[in-house]
Here is the input.
Amino acid sequence: MSGNSNRKRAARLCTQATGVPYRSALEWAEQGRISRTLPVPDAFRSEQRAFEAWVALVGGESLKDSQLDGAVMGFTRSLPTPDGLVLQVHTPMAERLLAELMPRVDVYYGGLRGVPGLRVRSSPRGCLLRDLAGGGEILLHGVGRSPRLPVDTQGVRYVGRRSRRRLHALEVAELADWTGSLAGDDPVSRDRLLSRLLRRPRLVNLAAEAHGWANSYCHQYQDMVLEWCCGQDASVVKDKLLRSGLDAPPDSLPSAEAPVGLHPGTIALGGARIYVRRIELAHTTQGLVRTGESIRGRYV
Here is the structure.
């Protein structure tokens, strides 16, 4: 295949995964910023990848089976660059999404929820999520520059509202667990894989294409599972994710042989895993309508 064809192919894959306009993606390809093997730019800094991975894991886990209009992690488009990430929030989900991402002590849960170290900042460019621990940033569009933030309730205290420049002790402990025994065998690859997933919202949202919601969850801090019952077959979604470079080895590492004995819906990068599954469930039209109405009622 010619170089020009490769660049056009990379641009199409980038647009399909992120929503970046094709002309912009083609410019990236011509500048060598994306390729057929990696058509969506990675975050360059490990701290940025870790922050994006946290947001992907918490967003997916906390919104499972309660998303609106197919926005599995609350996002519809992305503008990924090596230096940062811009995400388009599905606006009806904005307040709920921020409330889930912001770190908070929950006495009923028995610990910290949300993304430790995340702080919300106003910016002329939009709503900025800033990571106190590693300096990562994610800019949100569709939220407003000064969004309405959640307030403390009985048993729930948002630590970032009181300590905007210092980490709470529970945040420090959670960040240690992120790279400790709860992180699995390969936290470095996990950060890269989940960061890449967050940067491909249009492909992630295929899991919720049929009904508007999906069962997205994780096992401790190790992986992400995307489950749905109707719509595209899991093999099709997996293939699209792979063609977007989700499992491409980073430039610093040699290509590795694909692991053997994996479940057909498994995507592997080093010791990290993402699972895509379509499961067979019996639904009635009335049942789906009631579920959709119930979910929508949580955002009113």
Q: What stands out?
A: Residues 46-63 form the longest helix (18 residues).
